[in-house]
Design goal:
The protein is of the alpha/beta class. It has nine helices and ten strands. It has helices at residues 3-6, 18-30, 42-49, 88-96, 109-124, 133-139, 151-161, 169-176, 180-193, and strands at residues 10-14, 34-39, 55-58, 61-62, 65-66, 78-83, 101-104, 167-168, 196-201, 209-214. Helix 7 (151-161) crosses helix 9 (180-193). The two termini are 15 Å apart.
C-alpha cells in the first residue's frame, strides 16, 4: 500500500447524543478508521481539528450552536452531515457550504457504509497524480445503471466493493440482503462496464470461487 494511505484515516465525530456517538465510533473503528475525537459541543471541536482529521461526522443540533457554523472551518475536510433536519434550506446550505454527504436520521447501516465507502474512494485520490472522468463520476454517484437494473442497488454494491475487499456474489448478497442471483447479475454488469474486475479465489475443493474487486 502507498505510504500516504498506509495509516488509517482519522475521523472526528461531532454528536451530542452519547449513545449515537458511541455507535458511530464502533462502526468507524470496525471499518478500519481511527477515531481521533468525539465532541458533543461546538466549543470542543476546535482542539480536535488541530489533529487534522480526514473525515468528520457532523450533527447539526448541538447544545451551544448549529453544526453548520463549523463548515467554514472544515474546508478541506471530508464532512458528512448526520442530522434529523429535513428542511430544504438546511440541506441546501450544508451541501453548498462544503458537506460531501447528507444523512437524514434515522438511516440504515448500509447508508452509513456507503458514505464511508465514498469517503474512502475520495481519500484514495491522494495517491493519484491525475483522475479520469470515470473516477469523478463514480465519486459523484453519476453512474448510469444498465437497462433492467436498479441504480440504487447498483450503487450500494459498488460502494461495498470500494471498501477494498474482493467479495463473492454470496458475500455481497449476505451483506446487502439480496439473493445470490441478484447479486451475481449486478456484479457481472459492473464487471462488463469496467469499474469491477473478477478474480479467482482458491481454497477448498472444486472450482475456485469468483470474487469481485473494485478498480476504483
Amino acid at each position: 500500500m502507498d505510504g500516504l494511505l498506509a495509516q488509517p484515516a482519522r475521523a472526528l465525530i461531532v454528536e451530542d447524543d452519547c449513545r449515537v456517538a458511541a455507535l458511530h465510533r464502533a462502526f468507524l473503528e470496525a471499518e478500519g478508521l481511527e477515531v481521533v475525537g468525539m465532541a458533543a459541543r461546538l466549543q470542543e471541536v476546535w482542539a480536535f481539528l488541530e489533529g487534522d482529521p480526514d473525515l468528520v461526522l457532523l450533527d447539526l443540533y448541538l447544545p451551544d450552536g448549529h453544526g453548520l457554523e463549523l463548515l467554514p472551518a472544515l474546508e478541506g475536510v471530508y464532512t458528512v452531515v448526520i442530522t434529523a433536519a429535513r428542511d430544504v434550506p438546511t440541506v441546501e446550505r450544508a451541501l453548498l457550504s462544503g458537506a460531501m454527504d447528507y444523512l437524514v436520521k434515522p438511516f440504515g447501516r448500509s447508508r452509513l457504509r456507503e458514505a464511508v465507502a465514498r469517503f474512502r474512494a475520495f481519500h484514495r485520490l491522494k495517491a493519484k497524480q491525475e483522475v479520469s472522468q470515470a473516477d469523478v463520476d463514480r465519486l459523484l454517484g453519476r453512474r448510469q445503471a444498465p437497462k433492467g437494473l436498479d441504480p440504487l442497488t447498483l450503487g450500494r454494491i459498488l460502494a461495498l466493493l470500494q471498501e477494498g475487499k474482493a467479495l463473492t456474489a454470496e458475500e455481497v448478497a449476505e451483506t446487502l440482503g439480496l439473493s445470490r442471483v441478484t447479486a451475481w447479475r449486478y456484479l457481472e454488469a459492473l464487471r462488463r462496464e469496467g469499474p469491477v474486475r473478477a478474480e479467482p479465489r482458491y481454497g477448498g475443493t472444486g472450482r475456485p470461487a469468483r470474487a469481485y474487486r473494485s478498480e476504483g
